[in-house]
Specification:
This protein has ten helices and 15 strands. It is globular, with a radius of gyration of 18 Å. The chain is an alpha/beta fold and about 260 residues long. Helix content is about 35%, strand content about 20%. Helix 3 packs parallel to helix 4 and helix 5 crosses helix 6. It binds magnesium ion.
C-alpha cells in the first residue's frame, strides 16, 4: 500500500501506536517491517507531557527500540521556537508538566515559580494536571500585559481509558477568553513540528509520509507543509469524516500495520 517513493514516516502516537496505553496491533512486527523496507521514521506528538526519553522507555516496553531523537514532542517544539527568539536565561512562566519543563531547561531558560510569575519575559502553556486558580490568574495578568504567549498544542481533549478529558486547548480557552489574545502554537495542525521532524529525517517532503488518526491535526499539519498524508482508522477520525476532508488524505488505512505490511 505504501508508495515506493516514500523514504520516511512522521508518525503520530495516540491513536496510531497506542490507544490510551494499549498497543494497536503487533508493534514489534510493524516496526520490523518498516525497518526491513529501509524506511526511516520519527514520532511527532502534540502530547508534551512526557520527555522523549520517557517515550523511548514506553516504546521499549512494547518491543520497539528507538533513539530519543526520533521523538519530537510539542514541548520540544515550543522550546525550540523560543530558543530561536530569546537568549538563554530568559525568564519563563510555565503552566505545564515535566515534558515541557525539561525541554525548556535544556535550552537554558529560567523557569519561574508561580510566586515570581510577574517577572516573566514569556509565558508557555501546556497541559498541567495540577493547574489551579493562582496559576491561571498569573498567566492572565502576563498575557494582558502583552508578554509573549506560547503553547504546545490546541487539542481540545486528551484520551484516557475512560474517554476524552479536557486537553491543553480546553485549558487554554480560559486564558484566551480572559485576554482576547491567541497564542503562538508549536503543535499540529501548525507546521512547526513537521518542519522539525523533516529536519531530523533529512528527507524531502514529497518522500515523507505524515501518518495520523486525526484529520484536523495530523493530516492538516502534513498538508500544510506539502507532505503526502495517511489517515489511519485506529483512532479518532472515521472514513466518513475523511470523505468530507478537502483535500483528501493521500492514503487511508485501517492501521499502521495495514499501511506498511
Ligand atoms: Mg493521534
Amino acid at each position: 500500500m505504501l508508495p515506493s517513493n516514500i523514504k520516511s514516516l512522521i508518525l503520530d502516537m495516540d491513536g496510531v501506536i497506542w490507544r490510551a496505553d494499549a498497543p494497536i496491533g503487533d508493534l514489534a512486527a510493524t516496526f520490523d517491517r518498516i525497518r526491513a523496507r529501509g524506511i526511516n521514521f520519527v514520532f511527532a506528538t502534540n502530547n508534551g507531557t512526557k520527555t522523549p526519553e520517557e517515550y523511548q522507555e514506553k516504546l521499549r516496553g512494547l518491543g520497539v527500540e528507538v533513539e530519543a531523537r526520533q521523538v519530537v514532542t510539542s514541548a520540544l517544539g515550543v522550546a525550540s521556537l523560543l530558543a530561536g527568539k530569546y537568549p538563554q536565561g530568559t525568564k519563563i512562566f510555565v503552566i505545564g508538566e515535566d515534558g515541557i519543563r525539561v525541554a525548556l531547561k535544556e535550552k537554558g531558560f529560567e523557569m519561574l515559580p508561580v510566586e515570581r510569575a510577574p517577572e516573566a519575559q514569556a509565558f508557555v502553556m501546556g497541559i498541567d494536571r495540577s493547574i489551579n486558580f493562582q496559576k491561571v490568574s498569573e498567566a492572565t495578568l502576563l498575557v494582558r500585559a502583552g508578554i509573549p504567549f506560547y503553547t504546545t498544542n490546541t487539542d481540545r481533549t486528551f484520551p484516557t481509558p475512560r474517554g476524552e478529558i479536557p486537553g491543553s486547548g480546553a485549558w487554554l480557552s480560559v486564558i484566551t477568553h480572559a485576554t482576547g489574545v491567541q497564542p503562538i502554537v508549536a503543535g499540529k495542525p501548525f507546521p512547526y513540528l513537521m518542519e522539525l521532524s523533516l529536519e531530523r529525517l533529512g528527507t524531502k517532503k514529497e518522500e515523507t509520509l505524515v501518518v495520523g488518526d486525526r484529520l484536523e491535526t495530523d493530516i492538516a499539519a502534513g498538508q500544510s507543509v506539502g507532505c503526502p498524508t495517511a489517515l489511519v482508522l485506529s483512532g479518532v477520525s472515521t472514513r466518513e469524516q475523511a470523505k468530507e476532508w478537502n483535500p483528501a488524505p493521500s492514503l487511508i488505512a485501517e492501521s499502521l500495520w495495514d499501511l506498511v505490511k
